[in-house]
Amino acid sequence: MIILGMLHRGDLHPYEIKRRLEAAMVECYLDLDVGTLYYAIRQLEKDGGIEAVAQERVARGGVRTIYRITDKGRAEFQAGFFRQFEDDGPAPQAHYGAMLFLHCVDPGRLAEAIRTRISRLDDLIAKLGPIREQMGPTLPLGGDFLFRHIERQRRMDREWLGELLEAVEGS
To answer: Which residues of the chain have pLDDT under 70?
Structure first.
């Protein structure tokens, strides 16, 4: 999804994709090494999500290939983007990659995906209380702190998504 999102902005060669991802500091929340990037590009080209559109010579005598996203790639990007909002994991794992590409998706569909995610978080938060009460005095100290952390993380993710929803609906 990240590569397809980068190509939404225009045709690029892999090194430029890597450079722009570094500038966006994606390494803070995604493990993206050069080998993985080039492998993913080859797979996307093989699967028809991207296509080579040009080659240019570089100073060191090599050739770099410039890629563009295809219609199939745009559809794959949209599906992958919204799949991230269906993920019940913590916000950094589930949503940070998508934040780079909010401009590439329909704001109405994005708002609905955020609302759905907030609703699921509300359900998950509501389920924690009864579980914690049921375990009551048998809950060891470590378990108690684990419950506290999970609840705080979910509430923080919910608040963050609420702010994102306001921004999306206000734009």
So the answer is: 28-29, 92
pTM of the model: 0.82
User: Amino acid identity, residue 83?
Assistant: R
- Neighbouring CB atoms inside 10 A of 78's CB total 16
- Judge whether 105 and 83 are in contact, CB under 8 Å: no
- CA-nearest of 165, 16, 167, 157 to 96 is 157
* Degrees to nearest 5, angle at CA 162 with 159 and 164: 115
**CATH number for the domain running over 2-98:** 1.10.10.10
Report the run of H or E that residue 53 belongs to, with start and end. strand 50-57
Q: Would you tell me the crossing angle of helices 34-47 and 14-23 to the nearest 10 degrees? A: 130
Q: How far is Cα 86 from Cα 140, in angstroms, rounded to an integer?
A: 32
